[in-house]
Amino acid sequence: MSVQLTAPHGLTDVGAAQQLAEHGPNSIASPKPPSPVFRVLAQLRDPMILLLLGAAVLTAALHDLTDLAVILIVIVLNTTVGVVQELRAERALAALNRLAAPQATVLRSGRTTVIAAADVVPGDLVLLEAGDIVPADLELSGAVRPQTDESALTGESVPVEKDSGNEVFSGTVVTRGRGSGVVTRTGPDSALGRIAGLISSQRPRPTPLQVRLRSLSRILSIVALGLSGVVAAAGLLRGLPAADMIVTAVSLTVAAVPESLPAVVTLALAIGAHRMAKRSAVVRQLPAVETLGSVTVVAADKTGTLTEGVMLAERTWTEGGEFIASGNGYSPVGGLVPLGDAEPPTTLLRDIVLCNDADLRPPGPDQPDWLPLGDPTEAALLTLAHRGATDPAPLRATYPRIGEMPFDSVRKRMTTFHRMPGVDGELAVGKGAPEVMLDPAVTPYGDIDTARAVAAELSADGYRVLAVTDRMLPPGTSRTEDGMRLVGLVALTDPVRHNAPEVITSFRQAGVDLLLITGDAPGTAQAVAERVGLHTDAVVTGSDIDGGADPASGRVFARIRPEQKLDIVQAWQQQGHVVAMTGDGVNDAPALRRADIGVAMGKDGTEVARQAADLILTDDDLGTVVAAIEEGRRIYSNVRTFLRYALSGGLAEVLVMLIGPLLGLAAPLLPAQILWINMLTHGLPGVAIGAEPADPQAMRRGPRSPDEQVLGAGLWQRVAWTGALITAVTLAAALWARSIGAPWQTMAYIVLGVAQLGVAIALRRPRPDGERRLRFLDVAVLGALVAQVGPLFVPPLRDLLSLQALSVSELAVAVGFAILPGLVVAVRRVRKTRRQP
After folding, report:
1. Domain check: are 539 and 640 in the same one?
2. Is 13 a catalytic residue?
3. How far apart are CA 299 and CA 583, in angstroms?
4. Per-residue pLDDT at 605 exceeds 90
């Protein structure tokens, strides 16, 4: 978009209206939410749900109302929970364009006017003051030492100096000075809008669990239909009625397919989302929690994620010694700790207060922390003075400023001049880059060589170093920045979060690789990596990637542009990894959307990042990601446990119906009995398995392979032998009962149902020391057991299910047979646990 610069009085009101009609509002279009019908259809397109819908149609045609009711309840439950969770997440999050300034000050027709930011148009002359959010991309036409914080766009933690002719970008913040500029780009054409376009171009990828369950659904559907067809064909060959065989086949299809799987997965994910909410995280999409459980790589943005996202003056050096500052953020609470026998840096603290334009805002009702007013670096210097017991206000009153040479990016220094108390003459105070200030032509007095060595050492450790000088100017001396005396050095940093090293250790123990990505210099990236325990031999830069370097070859990345974050995420994904991306800025949003799961910082992060993410950390603590990984592994483990339980029971029911007739048991179970057993075993007990607590060893194992199928890692073998064991005891009990003239079909019904419930108890998580309360699974199994055996003692139910009464001894034998599979499963699990380190 090309815009002709306007006169100093700005656009006319008529001209602004024409521009608004031509270019549209200065806003980023929010994505249109899906319709209710689309939301429901999206929940129903899983192959297993489609199979159950088909089964529902067939059972309705056969007037099998019991089976129809079970199927419809599962479908409605799954769809309702999914849609409600989506709507709740959308209501909880703000629109994408909330980052934009709500108002802007412009000159129109020669008048200063405050308008809505959405009404800013190309050609408008915008007035900017410290603290303003830039409403659109501007070209500065007037500037009085302006400085903008572009960290949300570039990741740079240090504000950028601006001058007339420079561009300032939509969504950035003016941290110092003032200026005016002509709008060159608005809305989707602005820097913020272009990044929003990158976000919209990225389609969300299906989660690993969704991919695995879709594949499993297709396999189970085919197998279930095939086995049910075999049973129906076998019955027809024996001369049984076709209608009875169709009902039996449908019943077996429902039995073989774990139709409560969607409900189990949905409940497990919802419980995980609830647990995460209590641990300072907001889940925007239910599958996001499980996805973290399969993460193999976490790509972490440095600023605001591994670091606090604030400037901290941490170290001082003078010829009298060194000090380290204690304290957090911009709070004046703290102190200076000497390294050895050091003299207090009184003069240094005085000078960094005088050569300073910032101030500090104390906590108030609307904000709990101390905040910088002005340049964050200068605010950090004021904080250092407070921690050294130097109050800025009396000093500034005692040494009033009477002149200044402002900082600019060419001179890389700032000098102020102050009236001396009770003395004729002036005090000149300067601060700036060491390579400028420590030139003997500028600062001939002091131990310059030692200062240079210390500054180089601090820079190599990742600090931003400022050199401070001063000079007494006798009366009548012209103001100059030369001939200064060295006062000392101040080393500043964006401090590492207090728990970052422990978090890195937790990732390492969990087998998850961590990548550090930043727009800062390579030295800063290297230093931060060393401080958090992320050791690396080399730092990959954005220039290296432009030159053809493999983005998946490094662990620490510096000078990275927003689009290169996408390259890094995609390169690791192409190697088969499941990638989580954390970030807080607008520049992180495209990569957050492209990653398998995006994790945004919700406390100090931008709204654009939150909108692009799947998981939002309200405490901005990377440690919460560790907890989320554990929660994700818990969910996936519980889903696999449910599959073992449900599929082994379904397999046993099919095998009993297939093998029984070969052993002389013409109809081992009636359709109503199959449906009753299936309803009880796959109902609440199955759902309760999804709510089981986490495995204590989950975070001591590496992440599962991204290529592992949901029935992989030996699970299908465990399903097979568990199902075979249940089949064996069921048929054995039925044959024994027939041999003594007892009601063998009722015996098979009792053993088949109770054996599955016994396996559920055997698969439960071990009780932690001291736990005595009943879990959901205990209550669910107990209730299902009562409902399984109860019909023997309730005549109407007994007649409905075509059962016969058992004697006490016969019932005892049935229970004896039924507990065998659970005992075998429990013993094998204990032995396996003892073999693990």
Report:
1. no
2. no
3. 9
4. no
